[in-house]
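Structure ticket #2291
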Amino acid sequence: MLIRLITFGFTFIAFYILNSSLLNANEKLVVIPIISSSPPAKVYTWQEDPSLIPEDGPDGDTLSAKIIIPPSAGIIADLNIYIFIKHTFNNDLDVSLVHKKGEQSLEVILFTDVGYNDHGFYVVLDDEASTNIGSIPDHPNDEPIIGSAKPENAELSNFDGRDASGEWTLTIDDDWRVDRGELISWSLNITED
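Resolution: structure written out below.
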């Protein structure tokens, strides 16, 4: 039996697989936590059911998925984002993150039009990752992108030093009409100062 191992750096979250076709018949999904002496992070997870990503249309619809973090959250020392998207053509997607607290907001564009014609993202976006998500090569069998990667052209460290409380919105824009997908899950992993 072939076992595909997926590690997520210094911490992990177990993504659940809704479609067993993501694994070949002779494969088994195993998620391995990596133990570290780093301070424990708090994980805040989107609490909605999987949501369809609107296809690009005349009104330019997008999917906005919100996480509200309570006032006691603390100051961000490090931020990582877990994203689980099923889609039939990754290159159609533009994904950004906005943090709004009171009148202040900060937006970081996580990636745009990456992943060729591969089918989905099961990723941890982490500034400390060794690979940029925009440089991941096309998979010959159009498998999903799996593992840790840096955001394409921005740094999550832009959020460091900010109060973590407030409204966090992951926005997904599908800029082509033909292929479809859905947001299955996303989470913020915040290490406090």
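Closing remark: Residues 55 and 178 are 8 Å apart (CA to CA).
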